[in-house]
Amino acid sequence: RYTLPTGALRVRIDGRASHYFEWLPAGRYLSDADGGTMTAAGEPLLQQIYFGYEPTALCVRVDPQDEPERTMSSGDEKPAPVSTASEVRVRFPVKGLQVSIFPGEQTRIELEGKWPLKTGIEAAWSEIVEIRIPFAMLEAKPGEELDFFVEMLAPDRAAERYPRNCAIVLTVPPADIHEHEW
Question: How far is CA 111 from CA 14, 60, 78, 162, 168, in A?
Answer without folding.
Answer: 20, 16, 34, 19, 20
